[in-house]
Design a protein that fits this description.
single chain, 3-stranded antiparallel sheet, 3 helices
Length: about 160
């Protein structure tokens, strides 16, 4: 898949990776079907605990289908600034730095990456550090998000002659 080139007037949008969500939904649906067939063969009496667990996969399938159908925008980056869930985090005039970090968690199967945005609060010299979580099913990588931040930051600095 070709990577879209950013321009000063474009936007970088991070949303759900719909393909991955649908694949996970269908896998969970298959697990549910397997559990249901096992329960039917047992005539819903004395079926194993694993069948029950497989049947719970229906809930996960529904959740993944809903995520896949979602039009939610997690992060939007454009020439005005950085947005989280369509709310402005900071404009480029107050922006200081951004980097990717991983939230430390004990016993977890997933990555817990975060985009950390450092900026000044409007009208003050107070620095703020905002941590924006990056999901495991988003349609852009952590590196692409950071590249987009730095690209639009350079565009802002070039326009302001900084």
């Amino acid at each position: 898949m070709a990577k879209n080139q950013l321009t000063g007037d474009s936007q970088f949008i991070v949303g759900e990776n719909k393909g991955l969500d649908y694949v996970l939904a269908f896998l969970c649906l298959a697990l549910f079907t397997y559990g249901l067939i096992d329960a039917i063969q047992q005539r819903f009496t004395n079926f194993s605990a694993s069948s029950f667990v497989f049947m719970i996969a229906l809930l996960a399938a529904i959740l993944f289908f809903r995520k896949g159908n979602s039009k939610r925008v997690y992060i939007r980056i454009n020439k005005k600034g950085i947005y989280q869930d369509e709310r402005l985090v900071t404009g480029w005039a107050n922006f200081h730095n951004a980097y990717i970090t991983q939230k430390e968690k004990v016993i977890t199967l997933q990555d817990n990456f975060q985009l950390v945005v450092e900026y000044l609060k409007d009208g003050t010299k107070q620095g703020i550090r905002k941590k924006i979580p990056l999901t495991n099913t988003q349609n852009k990588s952590e590196e692409e998000v950071l590249e987009a931040v730095m690209f639009f930051w350079r565009v802002y600095k070039r326009e302001k002659g900084l």
